[in-house]
Design brief:
The protein has 71 residues and is an all-alpha fold. The chain has a domain at 14-45. The protein has three helices and no strands. It has helices at residues 2-15, 17-28, 36-46. Helix 1 crosses helix 2. The chain is flat. The relative contact order is 0.07.
Length: 71
């Protein structure tokens, strides 16, 4: 029963061990991919701007919260 829950983890680990362990370590260290040291390293590894941050985007909503009235 417990092994069934770990099957996807082992499958990903066996297919791409370096990427999996890199993501696992960055999650443990709580690294933010949009911060400068990690972002510049990722840009160097990918050879360009592979990672784009969406923290500043407002997804088409301009302004803050809007009030509504419910009848």
């Amino acid at each position: 029963m417990f092994l069934d829950e770990l099957t996807p983890v082992w499958k990903e680990l066996s297919q791409q061990p370096i990427a999996f362990l890199g993501g696992f370590v960055s999650g443990l260290l709580r690294l933010n991919l949009s911060e400068d040291p990690v972002r510049s390293w990722l840009d160097q590894q990918s050879g360009g701007t592979g990672y784009t941050s969406t923290t500043g985007s407002n997804n088409g909503n301009s302004g803050g919260p809007k009030s509504i009235s419910i009848d």
